[in-house]
Every structure is written in C-alpha cells, then in structure tokens.
C-alpha cells in the first residue's frame, strides 16, 4: 500500500487525531459505548469515526460495534467529518446515513464538538444477525445521540434548573436548587443558549443495500416478482432453496451462481443497452486497455505500461495474440468498439458470457441508492475494469492490488487518475 498512500488513493479523507484532548474524547466515547480504550496516542478517523490504526491494533475491522455489524456505533470529534468518506462501511447506506445526521443536526454537532465528542447508537431494532434472512428485518434505523461526559443531559438539566429558578416564587431561598445550578455551571459552563439537543433521527432508506455481514450479502426488496432477494457472496455459505423444505418468503442466490444474472435481468435490476457505450466510448476503451495491460504485465513484469509507446504496445498485442496469451474478451471488445464507432447496432446477445457480465449495467429505472448497490454487485461479478473496481469496491481493489505485478499496479493508479468515474 506504500504506493497508494502518496498517490492519495489509500487513506484519502482521514482526519488526524493527534492532540491529547481529542484522543481523550475518543476514548471517552469508546468507554461509554462499552468498548476498550485505544492505547494509541495518535491515529486517523473517517467520516464514521472508524480508525484504520485502531482496527489494526485490535485486529478487528468491526471494532466499533458490539458483536458485529448488527450493532454499530459512530463517533464524531469534528464537524469536518461531514466531508470525509467512510473507509470501512458496515452497510452500503452508511454514507447516506451520516449525510442525514449532518443535514439534521449539523448545527448541534458543530457546537458540541467544540468542547466534547459525540457517539451515535445506530439502532437497527435487531440485536444480532443469526442468519442471512434476518437482514430482511432491517426496516427502520433509529440514530440515538450521546455526548461524552454527559453534556447533552447536563444541558437539559441546567435549563430545567434555570426554568425552576425563574418560575418558583421562593427559588432564591431554595439552597438545594441553587447548589445544583452552581455545580452544573461550574462543571459545564452556561449551557442555556447553546444548541446541544439532538433528538433521535429515524432513517428508513434501507430497502436495498449491501452489508458485510456473513461475508457479504446484498438485500433487494420491492422487486417486480414480489419476493425479496438475498445474494450471498461467501462461497462457503449454503444457499437456501425451496427444494430444501418449505417454500421461502424470499429468494436466495450465491454470487457465483450462473443463474443469478438472468434473475437480475428478469427483476429489472440490470440491463444491457449498447447505446450506453455509444454515448460513453471511454467505458470500452478502459476495458480494452485493462485487458491488454494485464496480459502484458503477466508476460513481462518489467514492461513500462504507463510510458510505453504506441508502436511497442501494438507489438505486444500482436505477440500475445500469436502466442495465445491475449484474453478472448479483448478481441470481442475491439470488434464492439469498431461497430459502435461506425454507427452499427451490435448484437450483444452474441457476445461471450464473460463480456456480457462486464458490459451489464444497473437498470435505468433504479433509484440512486439501488443503482449504486447493483453497480457494487456487478463489479464483484466482473472486476476487469480496475477504475470501476476502485470507485465502487475499494476493499476488493486494495486486496487485488496487493497481488498485481508492480507495473500493472502503476498502470492502475495512472488509469484511475486519467478516467472519470463511470
């Protein structure tokens, strides 16, 4: 990952936590959540409050939760987290969830974090996921806020004391009241005019999402066929089927099941329109470039894929084709590009299954959240396009990056910089 860090592709958007008071506030949140404090004196956090250093310290990327992704917590140290990405989302809706937090309570977060930190209980109304179909019970999420050290509760208490002082006729002689008010002001300062109350926030955009639970599962509801769909990514996890017993109230597929793609088409989750590639030819150019450069890298790990002249690249292409080392998909993509450039209507039903997977795209009828979830799934089905892999499934990109030859890594970083997300 050392090449990724200076490039900004890994670690981008992390907030440094270096000052002692910020480390103390973070630890105070961990303790109130019921988690062990970190021994690190400095670390970084993302928009959720998740730290890669603390995850490494504990050898647990799910450290900011109780017993896995069903009971996550978020920590806010600064309003700057509003602009930060989330590096290890437990669920695909986590980024949207945090945007809702800042839209609703941005003013209070800005005020509170001047003197304390916040932790958020992301209550999914289910204590644990015991089996994949439990994910279908995730309907509404309630976000409950607490301030480290009890400042939010103190603000409510202090306002109640002030209200009593002004409303009770002999309040000036009530020593118990005066003492409580003095102790509150001494401990927290004058909180009367600060914006510190954050009511519970409901979040219901959970009809379609991806979760890391059970090795990765996609959840799709509101499908034309009527039954919800679960797509299980872990090849070791058994897939339930109606033949196994009583009829199911949902449909399950394994990610690598050959019948999955046909089902996605039938439920109008995906489509394959050649006009998409006519209107955005970079998509095909990028795929062709990735296929060729991967083949060159496998043949010669010393070849300069970034600075290679066109003539030398053509020589490599012809040599690899002669030696049978050029992927069959490369020729298919090249023919498709030629047909599209000439205004011809290509027969996409005649392409190989591998290319069909690579060209399949989310259906245009989908909402933004569903579109992104389907795109994430399609990237897992076909990861040839490294730019799209980085854009939609960064953990998978980082894992693949570690296994690539050095010259293909360099090309991948260059490609991500050159191509727009698409």
Instruction: Give the biggest beta sheet.
Output: 4 strands, antiparallel
Mean pLDDT: 87
- Physical arrangement of strands within the biggest beta sheet: 3-4-5-6
* Spatial extent as radius of gyration: 27 Å
Which segments are poorly predicted (pLDDT under 50) over 5 or more consecutive residues?
none
* End-to-end C-alpha gap: 24 Å
Strand elements, count: 12
What's the helical proportion of residues?
40-55%
Helix count, per DSSP?
Answer: 16
Share in β-strands: 5-15%
Order of helices and strands: HEHEHEHEEHHEEEEEHEHHHHHEHHHH
Content-based structural category: alpha+beta
Q: Please tell me what the overall shape is.
A: elongated
Give the topology, please.
Blueprint: H1 4-7, E1 15-17, H2 20-33, E2 43-45, H3 52-58, E3 73-76, H4 94-112, E4 118-123, E5 141-147, H5 151-167, H6 175-188, E6 201-203, E7 208-211, E8 217-220, E9 229-232, E10 251-254, H7 260-266, E11 270-271, H8 275-279, H9 282-299, H10 310-322, H11 328-341, H12 353-359, E12 361-362, H13 368-381, H14 386-392, H15 394-403, H16 406-418
Parallel strand pairs: 9-10
Antiparallel strand pairs: 1-2, 3-4, 4-5, 5-6, 7-8, 8-9, 11-12
Helix pairs in contact: 5-6, 9-11, 9-16, 14-15
